[in-house]
Write a structure and sequence with these properties.
Radius of gyration: 15 Å
Helix content: 25-40%
Strand order of the largest sheet: 3-2-4-1-6-7-5
Shape: globular
Length: 170
Amino acid sequence: MGTVHRLLLLRHAKSSWNQADLTDHDRPLAPRGRRAAAALREHLRGLAEPPQLVLCSSAARTVETLQRIRQALPALTSVQVEEGLYAADFDELLDYVQRMPSSVACAMLIGHNPGIGDLAVTLAGHGDPVARAAMAARFPTAALAHLTIDEQWSAVEPGVATLEEFWTPR
């Protein structure tokens, strides 16, 4: 036991499928996604402890989501765009979490389903059972899982986290 760590797991906002010539990696946000990102930005302003570190997938829709919420994060928040987060599965995402610097008390991952939802559901062994069930049933675009972990980052494993909140834009 030691410091309580906070982990924010965010699925990118709704992306557009209007441009058939774009690769999956290059799809931007849809108008609905931009609206959801604005609601998310307002929600993040209310966090008691905002993230010190944000790791974001390199996909256009995740980077745009980050850009649209950035003003809700402290200016000193470190942001890293990571190619490896694009299409990362549970094991790859868990590896990112376990390698977080011990000096980081609160971190955010911005990624994609199914990986980001699988990570949230698998780590959340405690917390409101109704919220955990809702999260397990569906982790929609722009959803945010707020977890607390009473372990060092390197010791994070399935079931150790408490789900403090499961927020969705609707």
